[in-house]
Amino acid sequence: MDGEIVVALDAMGGDHAPRALVEGAMKARREWGIRVLLVGDEERIRAELEQLGGGDGLEEHIVHTP
């Protein structure tokens, strides 16, 4: 990993999940190069990524949990 920052994020937690969390993950990836593992309902997370115009590489880092 050589100093790479990796954050695991419960994408289903919070009042505006998963949209608000996916948006934050996209911003962290884009602005700071942080690798985010999105944990939660894969179908809902992918739908949010698609609605937000792509995942900035996040679609490869989804950990499905029912």
Name a few traits of the molecule:
36% helix, globular, three-stranded parallel sheet, single chain, 3 strands, 66 residues
Spell out the blueprint of helices and strands.
Elements: E1 6-10, H1 19-32, E2 35-40, H2 42-51, E3 62-64
Parallel strand pairs: 1-2, 2-3
Class derived from helix and strand content: alpha/beta
The largest sheet has its strands arranged as 1-2-3
Gross morphology: globular
Fraction of helical residues: 25-40%
Give me the count of strands. 3
The radius of gyration over CA amounts to: 11 Å
Describe the structure.
By secondary structure, this protein is of the alpha/beta class. It has two helices and three strands, in the order βαβαβ. The chain has helices at 19-32, 42-51; strands at residues 6-10, 35-40, 62-64.
Quick synopsis:
This protein is α/β, with parallel strands linked by helices. The chain is 36% helix and 21% strand.
